[in-house]
Amino acid sequence: MRKTRKPKSILVLHGPNLNLLGTREPHLYGRDSLAIINRRLEAAGKAAGVTVTSFQSNHEGVLVDRIQQAKPEGVGFIVINPAGYSYSSVAMRDALTAVQIPFIEVHLSNIHAREPWRAQTHFTAVALGSVLGLGSQGYDLALQFAIRHLKG
Known about the structure:
By secondary structure, this protein is of the alpha/beta class. It has helices at 26-29, 34-48, 60-73, 90-99, 137-151; strands at 9-14, 52-56, 75-81, 103-107, 129-132.
């Protein structure tokens, strides 16, 4: 008899200032609040039989700690919007490569259509993929991929 493997969970990480979504520059980041996005992702995960946990912090070290906690918790995939830390946090990149959990990088805006310095992040080269410029729908698409990845 073949044992059925239970899918692991998915961790969605939101970096600095994303707690202001819905009110912060809606022309760039959309009108969906972080709470709306998180509820939508958690519901989609539940419908697929996968636990989705969301976490936001404005503090780099707290995000590094959360990434490191993911491995012993059995997290099988990470969806991350590093936000402003995309361009400065080698520590978060190192944590992601250290835990060896596959991840997708999400950006609400098209970082290549903005200031030139935004086009190069510390995460893109080590991510399975990136979703950018699609607003909060980018999270949904990244989650769909993560669920398929976990289910094999």
